[in-house]
Design brief:
By secondary structure, the chain is an alpha+beta fold. It has six helices and seven strands; from the N terminus they run H-H-E-E-H-H-E-E-H-E-E-E-H. Strand 6 and strand 7 form a beta hairpin. The longest helix has 24 residues. The protein starts with 8 loop residues before the first helix and ends with a helix.
Length: 194
């Protein structure tokens, strides 16, 4: 059984309060990853968790952003061929090190681990993924152009076209906040009763 990662003390210490650049697409994430590499973490650039050896995905977020959160991107053919539990979406949304930054003062305000393995979270993600997967399969069978957004009925998450036939799996901001709350409550419960 693999040990659960509950903290990254070295990274938390190095990042909290760190001054970051004005946000442009991906630059703050690259700055965070650079600091993490400087302090000894190996950060993967593949479509797998950033800290592959310990199964942790690193995500940065502007605290004032209200846009949906991207988990990972896949091609339509890979989505159709890959079940949720075999996908990079599953791999990248088990344990995340979420680094939040403020773009008023240009600094990291929070950096901590979130455990998203709670069955309610995983069921929501799997339902959204598999419903989208089925819609992509139907679109392919009908040989029509896929729309820019794919979302199954009663699903919290959706797919958004990026480039060509590549789609990003997206979690609306309100849903992400709910998932973070579930993770925090579960962590507090575990701390009390373990």
């Amino acid at each position: 059984m693999k040990a659960k990662i509950v903290k990254l003390p070295k990274a938390e210490s190095a990042l909290k309060g760190m001054i970051v650049s004005k946000e442009k697409y991906g630059n703050v994430g690259a700055e965070v990853e650079s600091v993490m590499q400087d302090i000894g973490y190996r950060v993967s650039q593949e479509n797998e968790p950033d800290l592959k050896e310990i199964g942790v995905e690193v995500k940065t977020r502007n605290t004032s952003s209200r846009s949906a959160h991207t988990v990972a991107s896949m091609s339509i053919s890979n989505i159709i061929a890959t079940s949720y539990k075999q996908s990079p979406i599953f791999d990248k949304f088990q344990t995340q090190f979420r680094v939040k930054h403020d773009q008023t003062f240009y600094e990291v305000t929070d950096a901590k681990i979130y455990d998203f393995t709670d069955p309610a979270i995983q069921k929501s993600l799997e339902n959204s993924y598999e419903a989208g997967r089925e819609l992509f399969r139907q679109i392919k069978d009908r040989d029509v152009v896929a729309p820019n957004y794919i979302r199954g009925d009663n699903c919290e998450c959706y797919w958004e076209r990026k480039v060509g036939d590549t789609y990003a799996f997206r979690i609306p901001n309100g849903t992400m906040k709910k998932f973070e709350t579930i993770s925090a409550v579960r962590k507090n419960f575990n701390n009390l009763f373990e």
